[in-house]
Structure formats: C-alpha cells, structure tokens
Predict the structure.
Amino acid sequence: MNKNIVVFSGTSDSVEIIKLLVKNGFNVIASVATNEGTKMLSNIDNIKISEERLDNEKMTEFFINSKTNIVVDASHPYAENVSKTAIEVCKSLNIKYIRYERPSEGVNENCIFVDNYEKAVEFVEKINGNILVTTGVNNIEKYMALNNYKNRIFARVLNNEKSYNKAKYIGLSDEHILQGSGIYTTSNNINVINKYNIKSIITKDSGRAGGFLEKTEAAHICNIPIIIIKRPSVQYGIVTDNISGVLDIIREGDIL
C-alpha cells in the first residue's frame, strides 16, 4: 500500500524533503499557509497542495479526508502553533509524526540568546544606537516598547505589500523599512550594518537555510552583538535534523 504523507511546507528544506519523498514513490500532500508557500512548490510534479491555515478541527478533517498515514512537520522552526496542533491531531488519530528541525549553526561569541521578544527589547534598550531587526513582521509591534523605536529600528521585511504595511502600521518611515527577499550574504549584511550605523542585530535562530550563519558572521566581523530569540520549546517526539534522515525514519520499523 502506498503511504499518504502530509508534509507541512513553506521552507526551502521542506521543498527538498518533498522532492525526496516523491522520488521514492510516496503520495505527498503539501500543506502550506500562504500563496508564497504554494509558489515554492510550483516546479514539483505529482503532488497535491493544500493552501489553508489549519486549526485543530480543520487539520483533523484534512488528515481524515486525505487518508494520511504519516505527517512530516517541516514547518519553520518558529511555527510553534502548527507543530503543536499537528502533534495533538496525530496523537488523536494515531498517525505517525516526524519532525524535521533545521540544525542550529553559526553561533559565535557575539551571539546572545534571549527567551522572547520582550527580553530582546530589554537587552537592546541598554545599547546606544540603531538596531537591525530581522525577525519578520508577525510580531513587529513588540518593538514599539523600545525607547525612540521609530528612529532606532531598521526593519528588514519581505518585499510584499502585507509586510510593508505592517511595518508602516507601527510608524516606521520608508527609510527604516528594508524590503527584500532571499538569503542575504555576509557581505550584504555588513553593508547594511555600515550604511545604517547599526549597533546591534535582533534575529531568530532560523538555521543555515534562513540566512542565520551570514548574519552571525557579519555581526562577528563588525564586532556588534546579535541578539537571538530562542526557538520555541516543543516536545516533538521523533526528530531529525537531516533531510535524508526523514526518509530513513519513514523506512524504519513500524512506520512502514
């Protein structure tokens, strides 16, 4: 019997996992939350794509309707709600759950880890000068707690209207909204640091695929602190940080 595998997608890692599973003959249903996630999968044949944000009830219905045998959670390291919901629904439906977690790398002596956005703001409040924020726009309002934030924050956001509008909503001027896409090189980051006289960076531990290494290298070269909001703590169960390891786990014992 062919296995129906749901992959929570939307990252470059998940695209590679899906390609690997399709190549090995599995029926893959990719679950994405945004149109950008769908576009990432446009060049992969023989898969189904579901574009919808799923709460517990919708996810349960989705798994039942798609006759899901295995779930591979390759969502972003900070997509905590997706992972927790998937774990809960898989347990209730007795579906095998596998977590692919991007490896964390690139940490150096300029890295300072904090538990949350509030702690990050608290830390940079003690630093004089401009702050480069590279944590996206979903929680950008958290930075309004920073003294003189409109003048101090330079926010790197995706090059789309939604992200731009969120940054504008908290009062940032166009000069302080740095739109772009893709992975920034170490040199790109250094140029931004020098151009805007950046004295500290706030980021997430998004792994190599998220450009984390290039940011920590730039901070090290420029000798400025980089404040890293820790990944959420989730009890995943079966976890691998290796893309081919996903296939190995699926092929093991009671999962096949």
Observations:
- Residues 111-229 form a domain with the Rossmann fold fold (CATH 3.40.50).
- The mean pLDDT is 91.
- The CA atoms of residues 30 and 49 lie 5 Å apart.
